[in-house]
Amino acid sequence: MATQKKTADIDYSIQEKILALYELQKIDSRIDGINKVKGELPLEVQDLDDEVAGLKARIENIRAEIDELNALSKQRKREVDQAKILIGNYKEQQNNVRNNREFDAITKEIEYQELEIELAEKRLKEYSAGVKGKKAQIEETTAAMAERQKDLEAKRAELESIEAETAAQVAEFAAQAERAEAKIDERLLAAYRRIRNSVRNGLAVVTVRRDACGGCFNRIPPQRQMEIRQGKKIIICEYCGRILVADSEEE
Any bridge partners for residue 245, and if so which? Predict the structure, then answer.
C-alpha cells in the first residue's frame, strides 16, 4: 500500500523506473550474497526442528498406546476376577443339584469361565509384552530426539550468529530496497519478482555487455541495443526473459 501511494504521488518516467529496477537488483544481489553465507543452515534448522517435533509426536503417540494397553489390561483383570467369582458360585451350586443334567450344565458354565480366564490371561501377557516393547521404543526415540535436539541447537546457534553479524547490513539494504521500490509500479515490481523467482541466480535485471545479454549471454541485435540505451520502454531478453538495461561502464 505504501509503495502504491508513493508511485501515485510522483509520476516517474520509464527510464527512472528502469534505473530503479537495476538498483533494486543490485541491492537484492547483495542480500543474496549474505544469504549465501548462511548456506543451507536455514533449511537444516527447519528440517531438524520438524524432525524433533515429529519425534516428540511419536513419543506422545506411543505413550497413548501404552495407556490404551494398560486400560485393556485392567479390563481383562476385572474379567478374570468376575470369572473366578462365577466359578466359585457355580461350584457351590453343584453341591445342591438335584440331577445329573443340572450338574452337567453347571460344569459347562465352569469350563466356559475357565476358558474365559485362560483367554484373558493370554491377552494380559500380550499386553504386557506390548507395553514392554513400546517402552523400549520410547527409550530409543528419546535418545534419537536428544541427538537431533543437540544438532538443532548447534545449527541454530550458528545461524543466529551469522544473522547477528549481518543484521545491520541487511537492515540497510532493506531500507535501500524500499526506496528503490517506491519508484516502481506494482505491476512492474511483480514482474521483477516473478522473474527473480524463476531464474537460478536471482538476476531478473541484467546489463548488455559485449553485445550480449548478461544473463544468458545470447547476442542482442544492434537495433535492440539502441532501444535499451534510450530507456523509453521495458526490454525483455527474448531468450531468457530477463529485463535488459544498458551497461553504464560501456556507455
Answer: 207
